[in-house]
Amino acid sequence: MERSPPQSPGPGKAGDAPNRRSGHVRGARVLSPPGRRARLSSPGPSRSSEAREELRSRLLGLIERSRVVIFSKSYCPHSTRVKELFSSLGVECNVLELDQVDDGARVQEVLSEITNQKTVPNIFVNKVHVGGCDQTFQAYQSGLLQKLLQEDSAYDYDLIIIGGGSGGLSCAKEAAILGKKVMVLDFVVPSPQGTSWGLGGTCVNVGCIPKKLMHQAALLGQALCDSRKFGWEYNQQVRHNWETMTKAIQNHISSLNWGYRLSLREKAVAYVNSYGEFVEHHKIKATNKKGQETYYTAAQFVIATGERPRYLGIQGDKEYCITSDDLFSLPYCPGKTLVVGASYVALECAGFLAGFGLDVTVMVRSILLRGFDQEMAEKVGSYMEQHGVKFLRKFIPVMVQQLEKGSPGKLKVLAKSTEGTETIEGVYNTVLLAIGRDSCTRKIGLEKIGVKINEKSGKIPVNDVEQTNVPYVYAVGDILEDKPELTPVAIQSGKLLARRLFGASLEKCDYINVPTTVFTPLEYGCCGLSEEKAIEVYKKENLEIYHTLFWPLEWTVAGRENNTCYAKIICNKFDRDRVIGFHILGPNAGEVTQGFAAAMKCGLTKQLLDDTIGIHPTCGEVFTTLEITKSSGLDITQKGCG
Amino acid sequence: MAAMAVALRGLGGRFRWRTQAVVGGVRGAARAGQRDYDLLVVGGGSGGLACAKEAAQLGRKVAVVDYVEPSPQGTRWGLGGTCVNVGCIPKKLMHQAALLGGLIQDAPNYGWEVAQPVPHDWRKMAEAVQNHVKSLNWGHRVQLQDRKVKYFNIKASFVDEHTVCGVAKGGKEILLSADHIIIATGGRPRYPTHIEGALEYGITSDDIFWLKESPGKTWHPTDVALECAGFLTGIGLDTTIMMRSIPLRGFDQQMSSMVIEHMASHGTRFLRGCAPSRVRRLPVGQLQVTWEDRTTGKEDTGTFDTVLWAIGRVPDTRSLNLEKAGVDTSPDTQKILVDSREATSVPHIYAVGDVVEGRPELTPTAIMAGRLLVQRLFGGSSDLMDYDNVPTTVFTPLEYGCVGLSEEEAVARHGQEHVEVYHAHYKPLEFTVAGRDASQCYVKMVCLREPPQLVLGLHFLGPNAGEVTQGFALGIKCGASYAQVMRTVGIHPTCSEEVVKLRISKRSG
């Protein structure tokens, strides 16, 4: 999350200079009067064959996506005649003036390879190479040109989206609202344990939604404890029933799945429950559950296939371990659980399982919550530890064995130290792997059409308009390289993408200062830079960090611990103490963080925090009275009463 | 070593005070040297204590006088003023108790096997809340002591413009003089004057938090305070609110009526357009209330255990003998008139908090105004308090947070055609599995219509409204535009993300 460069492009700049360097060609049929110019330029100096290949595929992309393309030179009278002809026919064209683009000469070279025609104008109509000026006029006189122009709907769809998660669905709906013919392909490959689910992707089915609901269930357990202190009377030991909860949550999810299908239908988006795979340019193979194959074509594609949990690659992992894909619909209580990993998924799951009263151990290879502020991460961990979660640091599992079958059964886990030769053994009912997620990009035929992926991570690199190296193929969501893996980000970028493609919008998705919250037992909300990243980017001496511990009012009477909740802001001393990092550890951290994120978008400074009046008594108000700097080393513990 | 440091600091303070007296003594320079304190604060509530602590930190010799006149029902409390003793703190805690009641009802849906209904014990809650308040009282005293602020538990009145006479509980009198005086005596609940039995049998918010026994079936004649009725309903009491006119005057009226709607649908009874005429004690001990329906003119009666008046607050200025010092008050409200520097009609006498005319009656504003005032007096600062865009939250069962202008106010200031209101109903994720009704969960943002559509006001009705509103208050302070708020990525799944997802304007329908 903290990988993005620190400075925001600033409001209003988003639309200037649209993609001149990126080689992107804007949607040709939008707002383009006859003779509109297309822009095309390469991203950098010649890297010989590779660059040439890239240019070639970009030219092909332009040809494929446009009804009419005219490669022209602005001073050429023949070119002008052709442009006038299409203009008189009322046909919009993409015009590329080779004398006005940086690499016009190379374009002309590549074009001659493709068409065997060295001169301009060079005209394509619905992907068919018509020829030069004379040939075009001949075709016009014979009626062939008109016929070619009529073959407008060369593709089945304007847009096909692979993946019906948050990003894919938002893009599909927006494109449909803009009057486009859209298809969504969604297919959930069952997990190794056989779990599968409906439309809506990770967030709805195996992510944010069930996670937050289980977190809420755990918070309710805490609330029940608190409630006695607040005068509510019941004597019995309250037990938690996993089945009741899971059924209620799954019911809610089913209603969401159904809601998504309904909303696609309402917007006339074609939904196909099939596995999508590119077979050639603009063509996709859709395979359904029964193995039936259907082929569809489209002018443009969006890849939004998301990620799935990673496995360890050790003996017994796929047979006996579960992941977050399975946990939320597990038909039985997981019992004594080993959570492997220290990602936010791992800590969140461990947190709520412990909240239900289960015996939970987290096995951590190195650090907690990689990429997040490490001071906060450690505090998240120590709060969990104080609330009964056991941590095994610096160990990795090497083997999982089944001792007993059952619901749940019994598993023996053998783990070894990452530092020495020490090994340990433990017996658990359930082993939950949460060691990371892999992009679903390797088995969807990307290589067939030349879409590049990062071979190591499987992620898809895109430019600032979410375009892959193949111009008519875009990508959104968790599969993007170096972008936050968050539902709202995917939704935002999917929606804005559709608006740019079909709605004449220029607005790009802004990935700076994206807020997020980790729903561990003590919630952690943040926006902007971690302390480590801030030091790396701005140097320690240029930063002022304000922090304090605080005690939520509701915790006092409940008898919960003081000096646990923590607030921290990181300010850039040389930019009027602008807030570049915001961190809060406490109840309702998500609700608190959101508004501050909006304020950071507007250039929040420490002075503004000081000038703003608090809302009393809330946790959020703590940020309006931050006085102690970290560099002062002063004590921040709360003594007695506030 | 520590004692030494403190002693030195004390000396330093005095030394500074002496030099100032010589240089800056405008009136009666000779006497100035003999005054007891640099600063005397009358009233030990949020505003007064903030002033005192800040001045002490700046090395001044400071005294605070505080005295709680028992309520007509005999309730009294310790140092810290309304917020700590009979306001925000006990209110939010009892609100929390009521919220926990709601969560207990949710719990079975989330798999917790707790037998319903769960009874509530008022005494246990009240004791816990009162213990917490007492610990805060104690904390305030310790803080004053730590900072060498002299504290007098005496009832103060002015003798002249530099001198205050204090009467202690035993009747002993003491005279205190100071160069600067800050009045921060706050306000107390108003009792109706023409209703028979009102004072005798009714209680107010001064008493409710300190009741040892449950108030039972309660009746709230109110136009302002819905919070008490909300938490009393929430802990299972039969609660009736009687309103003469509109609820939550000064707040956005659409939001207010939704707050009422939510309370009504959760068991609080409402009698609207009625005016009480008398309260009588029945032989069995219960109270019989008689009221008149203003539309039909008919009389009606009801029987209750408790009558809680919440019809407004009056400033605590009457016993101060302000005329002796020459401090002007508003003839209508009796509140103290001040300028933008919080100075009264007497230049070295100031006032902060609820006692001041035209200021929001909120703890954090009193604290900030007090601190800024003292920094101007003793710290060489010139920063004035900005009373615009003060965020606040009403802790009704469904919380209502707001900052900036109400829709009515925005229209009045800018004209209907220049105002765009974005709004949405939403369903908190936690409500789904709990099977709760979310018809009143609603958010609206009032903006200027002309680009870049400056945000004028934000109104949020839903769980944790206070937490949601705080950050956005900063955004509005920064001059956020609608577009900037929309460019903020949401945090999923929260209620606050609804604010950055507002796409539909009222105009568009």
TrEMBL record, chain A:
Belongs to the class-I pyridine nucleotide-disulfide oxidoreductase family. Its cofactor is FAD. GO terms for biological process: cell differentiation; cell redox homeostasis; cellular response to oxidative stress; glutathione metabolic process; spermatogenesis. It comes from Pan paniscus. It is an enzyme of class 1 (oxidoreductase). Pfam families: Glutaredoxin (PF00462), Pyr_redox_2 (PF07992), Pyr_redox_dim (PF02852). One of its GO terms (cellular component) is mitochondrion. Signal peptide: none annotated. Residues 1-52 are annotated as: Disordered. Residues 514-625 form the Pyridine nucleotide-disulphide oxidoreductase dimerisation domain. GO terms for molecular function: flavin adenine dinucleotide binding; glutathione-disulfide reductase (NADPH) activity; thioredoxin-disulfide reductase (NADPH) activity. Residues 157-494 form the FAD/NAD(P)-binding domain. This is thioredoxin-disulfide reductase (NADPH). Coiled coil: none annotated. Keywords: Disulfide bond, FAD, Flavoprotein, NADP, Oxidoreductase, Redox-active center, Selenocysteine. InterPro entries: FAD/NAD-bd_sf, FAD/NAD-binding_dom, FAD/NAD-linked_Rdtase_dimer_sf, Glutaredoxin, Glutaredoxin_euk/vir, GSHR/TRXR-like, Pyr_nucl-diS_OxRdtase_dimer, Pyr_OxRdtase_I_AS. Its EC number is 1.8.1.9. The gene is TXNRD3. It comes from the Eukaryota. Residues 68-130 form the Glutaredoxin domain.
From TrEMBL, chain B:
Keywords: Disulfide bond, FAD, Flavoprotein, NAD, NADP, Nucleotide-binding, Oxidoreductase, Redox-active center, Selenocysteine. The keyword DNA repair does not apply. NAD(+) binds at residue 312. Binds 1 FAD per subunit. Pfam families: Pyr_redox_2, Pyr_redox_dim. Its EC number is 1.8.1.9. It catalyses: [thioredoxin]-dithiol + NADP(+) = [thioredoxin]-disulfide + NADPH + H(+). The active site is at 492 (proton acceptor). NCBIfam families: TGR. Belongs to the class-I pyridine nucleotide-disulfide oxidoreductase family. This is thioredoxin-disulfide reductase (NADPH). It comes from Pan paniscus (Pygmy chimpanzee). The gene is TXNRD2.
